[in-house]
Amino acid sequence: MAWVRIDDGFPEHRKVVAVGPLGMAMQVAGICYCNRNLTDGFIPWAAARTLLTWEFLGEQGEQGAKRYTIAVTCGMQGDDVTTEFVIGLLLEAGIWEEVEGGYQIHDYDEYQPTKAEVLALQEERREAGRRGGLASVEAKRQAKLKQTSSKCSSKTEAKFNPNPNPNPNDLEEGDPTTPTPSSGMTELCAFIADYIDGGAQPHISQMILSYVDEGMEPGCVKRALEIAAENGVRKPKYVMTILNGWLDAHICTRGQAIASEKAREKFKKQGRAPPSTPVVIDTPEQQAKTEELRREIAELVEAKSVEAL
Fold this sequence. Notes:
The protein has helices spanning about 15-35, 45-50, 85-95, 115-150, 155-160, 180-195, 200-215, 220-230, 235-250, 255-270, 285-309; strands at about 40-45, 55-60, 65-70, 70-75, 75-80, 95-100, 100-105. By secondary structure, the chain is mainly alpha-helical.
């Protein structure tokens, strides 16, 4: 809802006094019309004749409400008030000016905001609201990230930081004991919460984090989440299918995952059917380690699924 500006001395202005209460009412109605429609003081000819009515209903009687018409009299003579009569008063006093297609309120922009000013203010408020909305979304995201990160298993944190320093400020830059991987886990937890259905729930996030718990790099798991997001899929099973496929192909690092994707793309460009599993060549020792990892993850996922029930 917008407002119009009326000076407290408006009723005593010489022009307003000249047109009387009828002209004053018409002027206020005209200002409201221009402000509401952002016409900068212009009132179309047809619109001017709909601003006010000079009739009103009285109290309800046995035969219905009485209908009254405002009239002007001089001595024993009088006539009903019409819009044409009141517009004539405003034009004669110089409050309105007749222009092509209608009427222009004199000096409108000296007292009322122009269309350009109103639109600029609206845009400023929208931008302020947008910035406030973005700040609110970011605050909620950070809160969810903090909540989700706190639910990461202690086993995962212990894996990356087995010997936490009680005085982290004593660590020097480049110190190999500095626990750098924690930021990767935090980012991974955020990815799970943002891109997976139910990812903020502990049993869902833990099933995916279990791949990291048993040896897969966080970046590798994150790559599976990215692929799911790129394909518009938010189901946990979809991500786990990708990860299980990588385990079958002995892929445990992000670099191996990306290399496998490139190899599959190369097959497609050559017109050859890509292999059913990702392409990576590993040593027998790595294959045995990966197979053991796959069994442990399957057991953990099954246990988490039972807990969820």
